[in-house]
Amino acid sequence: xxxxxxxxxxxxxxxxxxxxxxxxxxxxxxxxxxxxxxxxxxxxxxxxxxxxxxxxxxxxxxxxxxxxxxxxxxxxxxxxxxxxxxxxxxxxxxxxxxxxxxxxxxxxxxxxxxxxxxxxxx
Length: 122
Known about the structure:
Structural class: mainly beta
Order of helices and strands: EEEHEEEEEHE
């Protein structure tokens, strides 16, 4: 008899429509970029980012299409209120990876709008 195996994909991102991890929840997995949070999920107010890798990276951008100012989070991150999280502005797009994205890679994503190979784009 074969043993059952479970395959889990990381990182895992939970987006919530209300502050303090309440309201409707959306769960996303794997290396991906979301070009426009508002168009895709309406109004996101809080999030939980999880990965067993302490170098996993979450990048929030102030403009759609990975533009504008950005803020980088490494490892597990819980943000109960996304209002004004990036120098007084709300996130409009994001990138998440199960490995360390360098600042040079993040700036290249911001400059070109192109995600690294192996990333999904929503």
